[in-house]
Design the sequence.
């Protein structure tokens, strides 16, 4: 992961290209005990793989063999990617940084797995950290999301009071330097129903993904989710720019207004459903910061609406171009993240709720400067059709290296596509059982959430995702050319 969230790994770090991608074979597999999903992005540094798990264990593994160096047990499930770097500017002491689903941020010694500090960044019971904390110059920038829109499905739940946020922590101590809410105004009690249920608002605008850092403008960019309750927040489904030093909000650009929604909208009593519910069009993936010819910059933003935007960071997020790539929906459109090189942005489509599960995905290459489509590879027909949870949806984040784009699918397949024309170079079915280096019984399933990690001539990917009717699994897979 780079500070611009490009999800692009240059050749010297990737260690492989199109020729090697065609020859990828499984080298080792690692099983997560007692899990039915594997939804944390692996990180690679110093010959080790660092990865979190649904059981709350964070593992340090040998990158070449998968053998375990250490295990740290967090207080809750860890689905964030791991950030690795020095505790201070001196750089003598390295730590791994991550968050859990109880909104705790951690620093753990990289060499030993010993806890250095733990900070809870939000007291709301529904708060969680799903996007990777980002480390830069002695500060850790932590995004805060929530499951409150699900809690609202309980008819007695007082909906809703959570607000998304970004917290800046001192990387050495975990002390909070500043915290900025995505909705500036705190929620107020708006109504008390005859049943006694309280309705609060505004709420929502969770920050699901890793912040993007713009060192030139000293700004942090994040995408926000939908609102949970009335009144409509002006900063939901928006790109927010925050001052790195002070936490002051510099500007916001809302892409879908009036998108208030929670799970009670699916219930019979609709106890806390907003008066005019929206379509749950979160911006769930990180904005991508890219430079264009002539010195201009562009923020590329994918949304669950099925639209990809190019925004101008120098003009308050003014829309430069927009291109529709999918139908969109609550589990549709662009879910967890495109990737971009210097010429194109590569966008996978989810559209998981499509009535035709064999036609739910697809991969698009859009010209970075204009949004014009360069090529489109339709979703391959899932070989698992008829199996519960099988779908062609490509919900997971994609990863690019020179000449190749990797994209995982709900049908369990990980595929490598040519950046030149979208042709499929390599295809591996992860939805099966694997022998593991740690002896844990493990199988793959749907691929959703994190994308593959490519480093040092190897490709690492998690497989298994039981949520949203996906195929469960609990395995981390490592590939290399010819399995060497």
Sequence:
């Amino acid at each position: 992961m780079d500070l611009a969230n490009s999800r692009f790994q240059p050749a010297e770090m990737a260690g492989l290209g199109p020729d090697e991608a065609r020859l990828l074979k499984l080298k080792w597999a690692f099983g997560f005990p007692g899990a039915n999903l594997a939804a944390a992005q692996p990180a690679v540094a110093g010959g080790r793989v660092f990865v979190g798990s649904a059981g709350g264990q964070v593992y340090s593994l040998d990158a070449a063999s998968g053998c375990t160096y250490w295990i740290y047990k967090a207080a809750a499930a860890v689905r964030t990617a791991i950030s690795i770097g020095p505790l201070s500017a001196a750089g003598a002491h390295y730590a791994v940084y991550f968050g859990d689903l109880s909104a705790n941020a951690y620093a753990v010694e990289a060499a030993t797995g010993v806890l250095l500090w733990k900070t809870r960044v939000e007291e709301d019971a529904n708060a969680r950290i799903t996007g990777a904390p980002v480390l830069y110059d002695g500060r850790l920038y932590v995004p805060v999301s929530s499951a409150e829109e699900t809690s609202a499905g309980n008819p007695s739940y007082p909906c809703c009071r959570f607000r998304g946020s970004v917290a800046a922590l001192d990387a050495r101590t975990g002390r909070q330097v500043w915290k900025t809410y995505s909705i500036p105004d705190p929620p107020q009690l708006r109504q008390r129903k005859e049943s006694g249920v309280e309705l609060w608002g505004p709420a929502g605008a969770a920050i699901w993904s890793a912040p993007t850092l713009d060192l030139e403008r000293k700004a942090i960019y994040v995408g926000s989710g939908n609102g949970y309750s009335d009144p409509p927040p002006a900063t939901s489904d928006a790109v927010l720019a925050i001052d790195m030093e002070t936490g002051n909000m510099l500007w916001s650009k809302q892409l879908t207004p009036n998108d208030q929604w929670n799970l009670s909208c699916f219930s019979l009593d609709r106890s806390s459903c907003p008066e005019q519910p929206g379509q749950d069009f979160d911006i769930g993936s990180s904005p991508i910061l890219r430079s264009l010819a002539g010195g201009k910059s562009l923020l590329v933003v994918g949304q669950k609406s099925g639209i990809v935007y190019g925004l101008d960071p120098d003009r308050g997020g003014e829309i430069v171009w927009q291109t529709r790539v999918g139908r969109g929906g609550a589990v549709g459109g662009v879910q967890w993240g495109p990737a971009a090189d210097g010429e194109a942005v590569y966008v996978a489509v989810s559209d998981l709720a499509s009535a035709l599960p064999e036609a739910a995905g697809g991969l698009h290459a859009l010209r970075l400067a204009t949004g014009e489509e360069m090529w489109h590879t339709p979703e391959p027909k899932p070989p698992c059709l008829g199996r519960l949870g099988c779908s062609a949806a490509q919900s997971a984040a994609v990863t690019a290296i020179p000449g190749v784009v990797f994209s995982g699918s709900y049908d369990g397949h990980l595929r490598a596509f040519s950046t030149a024309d979208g042709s499929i170079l390599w295809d591996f079915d992860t939805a099966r059982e694997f022998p593991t280096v740690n002896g844990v019984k493990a199988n793959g399933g749907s691929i959703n959430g994190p994308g593959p990690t490519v480093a040092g001539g190897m490709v690492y990917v998690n497989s298994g995702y039981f949520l949203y009717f996906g195929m469960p699994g609990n395995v981390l897979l490592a590939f290399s050319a010819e399995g060497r």
The mean pLDDT is 94.
